[in-house]
Design goal:
The chain contains 1 helix and 36 strands. It has 301 residues and is mainly beta. It has 2 domains: 145 residues, no CATH class; 108 residues, no CATH class. The strands form 3 sheets. It has a 24-stranded mixed sheet that branches.
Length: 301
């Protein structure tokens, strides 16, 4: 589940990231914001730069929170976690050893002081038990119990100016702030207040206020880029807007409709076809080509 960055219905606010569903943060990540979500699960050594507000919380060992922590349900705090604010739990609290809480804590349910098993260890133990009992079918978790809207892989970084991961990134129906850098990037019905840089970049009904840079770039469904676009190949649908220049080493293609040869974006129906191999020549202005009449008008546009 943590093999790519995934954001759906996420809003970056001044000091917090608002998530409609659950938030899963991989180990050794840094988020210079607070998080507001239904459930928050964080791996070991995760740093948060603000308040955590949720219905259920699990924070693994050696993580730090630079703010208050409020859980409307149960909370699990691993050992050596540091909280610079106050911890408030309306349900049961399970807390590990050597936890530092600057402004104290309040729990209305049962308080257990011990060393909770890490999230990864607990999941592995659970799977091994089911396999030993021969209950493989129970490994399929009911969909109604899962609502991941914010997933960060291990070693991800989110600051006021930067969003980066070494994995792919899929973003849907979100409003994000910062320059995004990932492997392959798919952005649908979203707005990015920053630039986007990746290997293969797809904008689908989205707006990027900065530049877009990648090896292969697709602009679909009236997408808008605020500055320049730079890549080896650029594919655009009519109706898309680039306010700056378009630089492409191998050419720029503009079509009424583009069907993608890619697996990313399949959730919204994009990426289930292939780009035709006999694509006409790129538009003029990229390599100084002219039409057969020598007039310099674009061909196939």
């Amino acid at each position: 589940m943590l093999n790519k960055m995934f954001l759906r219905n996420v809003r970056f606010e001044e000091r917090s990231i608002a998530v409609e569903g659950d938030a899963l943060i991989g180990a050794n990540s840094k988020v210079d914001y607070g998080i507001i979500a239904k459930k928050i699960f964080a791996g070991e050594r995760v740093d948060f730069g603000g308040d955590l507000i949720c219905e259920e919380l699990r924070i693994d060992s050696f993580s730090t929170i630079s703010g208050d922590v409020i859980s409307k349900g149960d909370a699990f705090i691993g050992e050596f976690v540091g909280i610079d604010g106050k911890l408030t739990v309306f349900g049961d609290l399970e807390i590990g050893r050597n936890v530092r809480i600057k402004n104290g804590f309040e729990a209305r349910g049962l308080i257990t002081i011990q060393n909770p098993a890490s999230v990864v260890f607990f999941i592995l133990l659970y799977i091994m038990l089911l396999l030993k009992l021969g209950k493989v079918e129970e490994l399929q978790i009911p969909e109604e119990n899962i609502d991941p809207s914010f997933i960060l892989p291990e070693k991800s970084l989110i600051t006021a100016t930067r969003i980066s991961t070494t994995k792919n990134a899929d973003i849907y129906d979100s409003r994000i702030l910062g320059n995004l850098k990932a492997k392959d990037i798919y952005i649908s019905r979203s707005e990015v207040f920053g630039s986007v840089r990746g290997r293969e970049v797809i904008l689908d009904s989205s707006r990027v206020h900065g530049y877009v840079q990648g090896s292969v770039i697709y602009l679909l469904n009236s997408s808008v880029v605020g500055t320049h676009v730079r890549g080896k190949r650029v594919y655009m649908e009519k109706g898309c807007i680039v306010d700056g220049s378009i630089l492409a080493e191998e050419g720029v293609w503009i079509r009424d409709e583009i069907v993608l040869k890619t697996e990313i974006g399949e959730e919204s129906g994009v990426g289930q076809g292939e780009v035709q191999e006999d694509v006409p020549k790129p538009i003029l202005g990229d390599r100084g080509e002219t039409d057969s009449n020598g007039s310099g008008s674009p061909r196939g546009v």
